[in-house]
Amino acid sequence: MNKIKKKKELNQIKKPTNILFNLVFIIISLICIIPFVFVFIISISSEASIAQNGYQFIPTELSTSAYEFLWNEKEVIVNAFGISALVTIAGTLLGVILTTALGYVLSRPQYKLKGFFTWVVFIPMIFNGGMVASYVVNANILNLKNTIWALILPLLVSSFNVVICKTFFKTTVPDSIIESAKIDGASQLNIFGKIVIPISKPVFATIGLFLTFAFWNDWFQSSLYITNSRLTSLQALLNNIQKNIEYLANNPSAGLSIQQYVNSMPTEGVRMAIAVVIVLPIACAYPFFQKYFVTGLTIGAVKG
Length: 304
Prior knowledge:
By secondary structure, the protein is mostly helical. It is 74% helix and 0% strand.
């Protein structure tokens, strides 16, 4: 009984240490949350108060003009939001499947071409073909220009993500389980689907999170390959709106009616409102992945 009590005492964190850890995590959380809250506060501040007092946590005058401006463009924004959502969901699903499958194959010591394909995956991490080469391949050879695939395929598989998967499968999935399944007559597809995936949820969630962020935040592919306004992503659209606002605001040769419209436009507020619109959906998606992090970590744990 005394031994058990001593063991529990050794495993317990002392109260001062626990308080210190809590304070550290609270500070880290505030560092992450406060900037977003600050951006939101600026987005609901009036343009006059921003011009007079600068950015403030407690604005002197509230205004929803920035969101009203975006609401006036709701049809275009909703369409762009749908494109971004479609690209993010489809790209994440396809990317997770391809990345984890490739990582699993490269992690198996029995695969004869493992060394060759490992170098094929590793070399692009060091040497990049450049934007011109990728543009020629995607636009001219694959004819992806003005297609939804132009927003998905360039970001689908990352060498870094493949290396993460390979390392995870190599260190986490025991060879004995794979061999036992082979003896029982299971195919490689069954092994991967029924054995590897259930015990590898952490890496699936990690790769899914990386890909979700990459696809959702990407505006560059849209600016390169998309000229059809119906296929413009949300990030590219909002980036264009911001550029147009800045251009009109800084262009003294604009017509009087346009200049009056620009003068009444919530320039600073719109910038911040755009940031809120982009960040909010992805912030809401994170808890979904967090649940699978926890579930994956507890699978196969020693109970006692």
